[in-house]
Amino acid sequence: MGTTYSATIPVQCLKEHACVGCQGKFSYLFTRNIKGSGGTQEAAMANAQRIAIQETNSGVDFHPCPMCGIVQPDMIATIKSSRFWLGLAVSCATLLLATVLGLSQIARINVSAYIAFAGVGFAFISYFLGSFFNPNRNLDRNILASQQKIESKQLMIVEESNASNIVDRFGGMRFKNYIGLICCIVSLVAIISPMLLAQANDWHLNDSIYPAVAGAGDRPTIYLLSKVRSLEGKWRGSASAELRNAADFGLRNDIVPATSQVSKWSGKLKDKQKTRTVWAQVVLPQELADANGKVGRFSISVTARFPVPAVGGFRDEVSKHNRETEIRFSKPHSGKIYYSAWLFGQIAAALLMLSAGVLHLSSVTWLRKQANPITPITMGEIDNND
Ligand SMILES: [Zn+2]
User: Fold this and answer.
1) What separation in Å is there between the alpha carbon of 73 and the centre of ligand 1?
2) pLDDT over threshold 90, residue 168
3) From residue 272, how far is each of 161, 226, 232, 308, 314 by CA, in Å?
């Protein structure tokens, strides 16, 4: 990574608003310290200048009209926009994190779902606070606040108006906001659907397998409690599994099909060792269809082969790994349904939350367009102090 340069430009101008409520005009001093960054000092400065021009033209401070009390649509939009962007960023980041953790089996299905639920729940609150934000509920109080700012010279009246019977049309909810909030609620339900299904169907959750629910026809993964350390983390395993109480389920044979990691290596391997947990995947036979609620006692063995550093490159090493574990069975294929509900829930939530973000932000775009154009009056040269 190269060095990141930064530049600061102070912006100072007088902003003049023509009120959308009473058509009166008022102004205030607008100041910002604009920061820009870039790969070179010139790029950082160019960036800062671009933002400075943008802020000079469209940046606003929050001041109600001192004559009628209306807060202008672009002032409302600035606050709503920051809450909506926060909601969108948090929901996208947590959904991505939760899905990656679940797919890589670093986190269990329910943990992944709780992370996603927390993120989308936060976004819902942020969207809710943005949607309902309406500073124009009490215009008298707004007038009072702005009158005080006039006394302290923070605000100036440029053109008086005869404000009477002013009605606000811009604060509060729009139709798009309602739809956006409904998207969040549907997302929350989609995310916890695996847990809702588990509750409704009385599925049994097992700590030792992934996914935690399994019935006849499912292929749960069992992590053995030992690891291998190999070049590039490569290993392959040959697995065997035994259902020790097979007779309890009317099975004549106690051998259960099992598979493990498939991997090949040859030629050159990077001289970098990684640790991997040994695992096996067992196929639960159809004979377990009526085993709902019963416990199977499994013996899993994996013979792992993996490359380790040796003179002139690498040599293969072999190690044996065993684990005894119990699985409380659920109805046939319930593990597959549990996993699919999680994956579908995450994808549905991601699409819904993106839609919610677009809806909320487009309501802000509309709001900005309702404002009367602002007149920025720049005060001399913009000087550079960095
Ligand atoms: Zn006004």
Assistant:
1) 12
2) no
3) 76, 20, 6, 10, 11
- How far apart are the CA of 154 and the centre of ligand 1, in A? 17
User: Ligand 1 centroid to 257 CA: how many Å?
Assistant: 77
Residue 95 phi/psi, 5° resolution?
-65, -40
Residue 377: what pLDDT?
86
- Determine the pLDDT at residue 229: 94
Quickly tell me which residue has 């190690």 as its tokens: 319
72 CA from centroid of ligand 1 (Å): 8
Give the number of other Cβ atoms within 10 Å of residue 98's Cβ: 26
Q: First-to-last CA distance in the chain? A: 23
| Exposed/middle/buried for residue 243 (C-beta within 10 Å: 0-12, 13-18, 19+) | buried
Can you give the pLDDT at residue 379?
67
- Summarised one tens digit per residue, pLDDT across range 299-311 is 999 999 999 998 8
Q: Is the pLDDT of residue 386 over 80?
A: no
Q: CB-based contacts of 59: which residues, under 8 Å, 6+ apart?
A: 11, 15, 30, 32
CA of 365 to the centre of ligand 1 (A): 22
The three-point CA angle 209-210-214 to 5° equals 70
Tens of pLDDT, residue by residue over 171-226, are: 888 999 999 999 999 999 999 999 999 999 999 999 999 999 999 999 999 999 88
Q: CA-CA distance, 257 to 194, in Å (whole number)? A: 27
Count helices and strands in the chain by DSSP H and E runs: 7, 12
CA of 164 to the centre of ligand 1 (A): 10
Ligand 1 centroid from CA 23, angstroms = 6
Helix or strand run (H / E) with residue 130: helix 109-131
